Amino acid sequence: MTIGIHHKFILLSITLIVMLFNYDSVLHWLAVLLHYLFESLEYVLDGCVEHVFDTATHDTQVIVFYLLVLLISYSVYHFTPRCYQRIRQQIANDKAEMLNYWQFLPLPKKIKYSTSLLVILSCWLYFGF
Asked: What is the distance between the alpha carbons of residues 91 and 89, in angstroms, rounded to a whole number?
């Protein structure tokens, strides 16, 4: 099932509102999630290295550290250009869809959406700072 452009617009608006009003909570939640993922990966690698090489704790930590540095370096080198191009292409597609949607939107809905946006921004500026 595909998502219509008006559903994307509403979802994007809700996401932006949540990010504007709760950016610190959302960023903290993402940081905690990334930390748990990193710790889980490190724990699995520690167990594998200790089992395979029968090493002490310090030696295992050093080996795992360099494995993680190698893994992260390769990932950043390999995936960054591809992700950057995909993100740029997706943004261009979404922008074209939204401009097309806005162009064929009736005038009363344009006024309603613009007024809603101005009210939200005004409330954010008044109560947010």
From this structure: 5
Q: How far apart are the two ends of the chain, measured CA to CA in Å?
A: 40
Q: What's the whole-model pTM score?
A: 0.50
Dihedrals phi, psi of 92, to nearest 5 degrees: -65, -40
* Among 39, 59, 40, residue whose Cα is nearest residue 49: 59
| Amino acid letter, residue 77 | Y
Query: What are 35-73's pLDDT values in tens digits?
Result: 999 999 999 999 999 999 898 989 999 999 999 999 989
Q: Where are the alpha helices (DSSP H) in the chain?
A: 5-21, 23-53, 57-103, 107-128
Residue pointed to by tokens 């452009």: 5
Structure-token pair, residue 13:
């608006």
Which amino acid is present at 98?
M
Among residues 14, 9, 21, 25, which one has the least CA distance to residue 98? Answer: 9
Tell me the one-letter amino acid at 127.
Answer: F
CA 63 – CA 71 distance, rounded (Å):
12
Q: Choose among 34, 2, 12, 22: nearest CA to 113.
A: 12
Return the residue matching tokens 């932006």.
16
